[in-house]
Amino acid sequence: MRLKPVSLLLALCCLFNQAQAASAPVPYALPDTEVRDIRAQALQRDYQLFVALPDSYREGARRYPVVFVVDADYSFAVVRNLAQRLARHAGMEEVIVVGLSYAKGDGGVYSRRRDYTPTTPRKHDYRSDMPGRQPAFGEAPAYAKFISGEVFPLIASQYRANMGRKIFVGHSYGSLLGLQIMLTEPRTFEHYILGSPSLWYDAGVMFDREQAYASSHKDLPASVFFGIGGLERLPAGKKRSRSEEDADMVADLKEFNQKLTSHKFAGLSTRVRVFDDEDHASVFPLVLTHGLRAYLKSK
Prior knowledge:
The protein is an alpha/beta fold and about 300 residues long. It has one domain: Alpha/Beta hydrolase fold, catalytic domain (Rossmann fold), CATH 3.40.50.1820. It has helices at about 5-25, 70-90, 110-115, 140-160, 175-180, 200-215, 250-260, 285-295; strands at about 35-40, 45-50, 65-70, 95-100, 160-170, 190-195, 220-230, 265-275. An 8-stranded mixed β-sheet has the order 1-2-4-3-5-6-7-8, with helices on both faces. α2 (about 70-90) packs across α8 (about 285-295) and α3 runs parallel beside α5 (about 175-180). Belongs to the esterase D family.
């Protein structure tokens, strides 16, 4: 049977579309990774957990330290790949990596400002990256409870995780969240890797939090690795202040660590590393690598 011109054209279009579909590129997927949806009941928001399993996970029954990293939309692949490379080529312990995503439906800036900051800043001119919604702040205490109360039980029930060896990884605002946890419930994690903490936030509110903690505690059971880029300093000629525009983040971090160690808290161990020639955007992989080495064992 001969096809009519219109029928022939439709048949050719169908074949063309099939050929295109067959040759269309597919998304790249990281091996041995999983994505789990999770509802934050108290927050009434939905998140995702990105989970990466170590090479030897399928081979036995051992349990692994767990690295929990915030800002996962950016950081998860970095942490997963560096942790895997250190285990394969530098003899470091293998780990499970858990990335905590931004809230579903929220912009990344909106989500992290709200979930990672300890307070609503007393003065600010921030604009929202979500049209029709005012910027939100100060929900780090509630978000920390979500991590310990809902994320931890899920990971403990679904994976061979050594929940007695949990590592927190944060950078910038993410490090504010880490400090919020460390200065309220320090035993939430066994090791903290905190890069370039935004200690200028809300006129230096974390300095106040540290002083308040010291006034009522003699111990601070926490292992902490602080890292920052050497270029995160205030330009010459500018006067340092507790504001984002005039912050010297290197000086802030050194001052904060000095205050922490001056109290001689029982159980506290800190290290500070300044990475020359790195800035706020470039320093994270170095902070992560050295922070993992400060806690994980090598063969």
